[in-house]
Amino acid sequence: MSKMLRTNSDRLDYSEMLIPPVGYKTAFAIGTTYSLDLEALIGVSISLGLNEDIDSKLSDSPIYLLEALRKVADKMLIFCEAGQIKAPATQNKLFPFLENSVVMVTAKNNKSFHPKVWLVKYENDNAEVIYRILVLSRNLTFDRSWDVAICMDGKPTGEAVSKNESLVAFMTYLYERMENRYEKMAVKKRSLKKLLDEFLQIEFQLNDKHFDDFYFIPLGIYEGYNKEYTELFNTYHKLLVISPFLSKNIMDEFKRLQLTNADKTLITRKSELYKLSKDFLQNFDTYTLKDDVVDGEDRLAEEGEIKKQDIHAKLYLRTKDSYSELFLGSANASENAFNGNIEFMVSIAAKRRWLNVENLKNDLFGNDDKINPFEKIKAIDYVVSDADDAKEDLQKAIKEFCKVKTLATVSDGYNITITIGKLKTDIELFISPLLITKRERVQDTVIFRGLDLPQLSEFYVVTARKGGEELSRVVKIKTDGIPDDRDSSIFNSIIRNKEGFIQYISFLLGDDYLLTFIEDGAKKGNEYKFLTANCQETPVLYEKMLKAAARSPEKLNEIKQVMTMITDKDIIPEHFHALYNTFEKAVLK
Fold first, then answer.
1. pLDDT, tens digit (0-9, with 9 covering 90-100), for 205-223
2. For residue 266, what are the β-bridge partners?
3. SS3 letters for 261-306?
4. CA 207 to CA 126: how far, in whole Å?
5. Measured in whole angstroms, how far is the alpha carbon of residue 225 from the centre of its chain?
6. Quick check: 444 pLDDT over 50?
7. CA-CA distance, 137 to 150, in Å (whole number)?
8. CB 121 within 8 A of CB 147
9. How many CB atoms are located within 10 Å of the residue 25 CB?
């Protein structure tokens, strides 16, 4: 392989990697992440449910996002670190639909739940299945930092695949983190158990003849899944480490493992250099992204949200004699990563001629220093920055909140009473339901009065404040008494009226979601008039229902599900029920 990792061309799109193969639909999807953005999770539903890119025009319409969530809300589970759900900048009525898809995990001994993995099952109309594993270094957020990923598809073998035992152990750990206090979550837990058994018999393929083998490497899940289990910390002749966060002890260990005249390279963030001694930097070639790359968006953009770009990939390439191993995934070169965190990595083995440090460095750095995004740093003593100290204290306070017992109860008039256990922090904490702006100081009992039905949710915003600094995160709190018609009230508020209903049904019946969206956007004025007494103004929708009846009769069932969700009688046109009943009698016998 003359090229390994070309930063200008080898780009992987998160959403594209989750879109089902042609002719397939998502049967069930499990994702893990350290930090989570709820807006990004809604975006993922476009990929899993509508087979479209997250950045497509579909994300502009609440109606189409609602349909995406309706399709996959019961088929998706996301596990994340407790206290690491980003507080959204804007409120979104759809957030409550994500409640039964999010599981917060609190690891033992103040460690972190840090893996970034997707495990997905796709199926087609012939009951054929494809399984996909996606291992990333990226969280489920809109972060623009540089990451790395590997995607593999597999099919059932009919017998146990030994190398999947560690993968199934990881899935078992996730299964054990789930509650089943609600029926919807209990159903998902059973689905995960079924998927766990299926994955044991899946043979995944790298689809590259240059690689000899690969291994799944979970960390921290059970005894024995530790640093030694990775087989990463062995002697080497050449080593390249890419890690945004470091620990001195881990990097010193890598240094000690070198053989004679070893070639050693580290790529990290400038903010981590203070952890490395001058002696280490003289011995280890160390690079960071140039300031022009990190701040490039800030310098070019005139308005809008500005985000810095930096290294977020975690990658280790080690060569000894004529053989190489590449490790990638979630684990930083840190003590926490290899001694307690829940992590997930994949290792790939190949002969040095196909997998080697020289080619990787050449791909990353190029031959022209002017266009090289990295710069070699000087071997000096760097000073620690305390800029993030305050934020770290705030984050610890929120993590502490996630450990105590909490319970919320909804009473008549949609009042919420939250009871909170004793906290071991002196930092000020505030709490509010996710979809309202009013917040109250955290104490033993907190009450919010007079919410609207669509505002009820198990998501709450906890804000930690110290001095002039604040940090807000979303947490999930068990909330009893949410009325059964809450979801219908959200449905009603998004569909809103007859025009919205027509748009929704037209979208649902379309052969191509994106094309239907564009066509609907082109309609104006009286083109949306619908269903007069003699039903003569319905040719387009009528044709779509005829096509659905002939080609995809299951879509008529989906229409019925939507009609069941809508409880506002003014939303569904008066004569649509009669039209639907005609098709139902003819097709759904």
1. 998 888 999 999 999 999 9
2. 241, 286
3. EEEEEEECCHHHHHHCCHHHHHHCEEEEECHHHHCHHHHHCCCCCC
4. 25
5. 24
6. yes
7. 10
8. no
9. 16
Q: What is the pLDDT of residue 521?
A: 55
Triad 233, 337, 231: Cα angle to 5°: 25
Residue 589 has what pLDDT? Answer: 57
The C-alpha atoms of residue 73 and residue 191 are separated, in whole angstroms, by 13
Largest alpha-carbon pair distance within the chain? 88
Residue 346's DSSP bridge partners are: 216, 328
| Paired tokens of 253 | 């260990």
Q: What is the mean pLDDT of the chain?
A: 88
In angstroms, the CA 464 to CA 67 distance is 35
Q: Are 508 and 438 in contact (CB under 8 A)?
A: no
Q: Which two tokens stand for residue 403?
A: 């450990």
Tens-place pLDDT, residues 307-328? 678 899 999 999 999 999 999 9
List for the chain the helix, strand, coil content (%; round to 5): 35, 25, 35
The two structure tokens encoding residue 34: 């350290």
Of 48, 110, 114, the C-alpha closest to 77 is 48
186 neighbors 74 (Cβ within 8 angstroms): no
Q: Which residue has the higher pLDDT, 18 or 548?
A: 18
> Helix or strand or coil: residue 31?
strand
What's the predicted TM-score (pTM) here? 0.91
Whether the CA torsion 384, 389, 391, 396 is positive or negative: it is positive
List C-alpha distances in Å: 548 to 46, 59, 283: 21, 24, 67
The pLDDT assigned to 512 comes to: 62
69 sits in the region (left: phi over 0; alpha: psi -120 to 50; else beta) called: alpha
Neighbour-count burial of 211, counting CB atoms closer than 10 A to its CB (0-12 exposed, 13-18 middle, 19+ buried): middle
pLDDT of residue 3: 45
Element (H, E) at 199: helix 183-199
Query: Which tokens belong to 274?
Result: 């203070």
Strands 149-156, 236-242: pairing kind: unpaired
Question: Of 124, 101, 127, 122, whose CA–CA distance to 27 is shortest?
Answer: 122
Rounded CA-CA distance 463/395 in Å is: 10
Work out the number of other CB atoms within 10 angstroms of the CB of residue 194.
Answer: 12
Rounded percentage of the chain residues whose pLDDT exceeds 90: 68
Please, which residues have CB within 8 angstroms of residue 231's CB and are 6 or more apart in sequence? 325, 347
Backbone torsions φ then ψ of 217, nearest 5 degrees = -130, 85
User: Token digits for 137?
Assistant: 């270094």
Sign of CA dihedral 87, 93, 97, 99: positive
Burial 366-394 (b: 16+ CB within 10 A, else e): beeeeeebbbebebeebeeeeeeebeebb
d(CA 365, CA 356): 14
Residues 31 and 117: beta-carbon distance below 8 Å: yes
H or E segment and range at residue 406: strand 406-411
Beta pairing, strands 117-123 & 85-86: unpaired
Q: Under a CB-based contact definition with an 8 Å cutoff, are residues 570 and 497 in contact?
A: yes
Nearest of 402, 439, 434, 438 to residue 421 by alpha carbon:
402
